[in-house]
């Protein structure tokens, strides 16, 4: 009986850890093309295949085009945010090359909690 209880506790701890990781704030600041981060900043092309660690990340294959909407700044400048078709998420800036800059001046703004939640079919996923 205690073995089953131990397994359930372990599963609960693993589930909680995954939930915390998927809502973890990756940076307190980001750079955008406008204060609302709605304008596309640039068009980039993937230079390698990328598979993100969780649902907040954008997965892509070499050669695919991505539109960049924001770049995390200060403590985590390696992650950019963009879209590929209907898919949206974070990806490492060193996995892409810039094809076209669409906005010349970047604005630095505070991130929001919703910036780090999973988005599935136009709905936020609270894990």
Automatic annotation (TrEMBL):
Keyword Glycoprotein: yes
Membrane topology: Single-pass membrane protein
Domain SH3: 39-101
GO CC, any one term: endoplasmic reticulum membrane
GO biological process: endoplasmic reticulum to Golgi vesicle-mediated transport; protein secretion; vesicle cargo loading
Listed InterPro entries: cTAGE_MIA/OTOR (IPR051500), SH3-like_dom_sf (IPR036028), SH3_domain (IPR001452)
Subcellular localization(s) per the UniProt record: Endoplasmic reticulum membrane
Principal location class: endoplasmic reticulum
Secretion signal span: 1-22
Record keywords: Coiled coil, Endoplasmic reticulum, Glycoprotein, SH3 domain, Signal
PANTHER family cross-referenced by the UniProt entry: MELANOMA INHIBITORY ACTIVITY PROTEIN 2 (PTHR23158:SF38), MELANOMA INHIBITORY ACTIVITY-RELATED (PTHR23158)
Record's protein name: MIA2 protein
Gene this chain is encoded by: Mia2
């Amino acid at each position: 009986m205690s073995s089953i209880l131990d397994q359930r506790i372990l599963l609960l701890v693993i589930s909680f850890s995954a939930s915390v990781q998927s809502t973890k704030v990756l940076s307190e600041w980001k750079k955008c093309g406008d204060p609302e981060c709605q304008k596309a900043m640039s068009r980039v092309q993937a230079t390698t295949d990328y598979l993100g660690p969780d649902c907040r990340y954008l997965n892509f294959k070499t050669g695919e085009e991505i539109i960049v909407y924001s770049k995390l700044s200060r403590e985590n400048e390696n992650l950019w945010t963009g879209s590929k078709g209907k898919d949206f998420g974070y990806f490492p800036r060193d996995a892409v090359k810039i094809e076209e800059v669409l906005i010349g001046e970047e604005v630095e703004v505070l991130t929001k909690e919703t910036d780090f939640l999973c988005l599935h079919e136009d709905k936020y996923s609270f894990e």
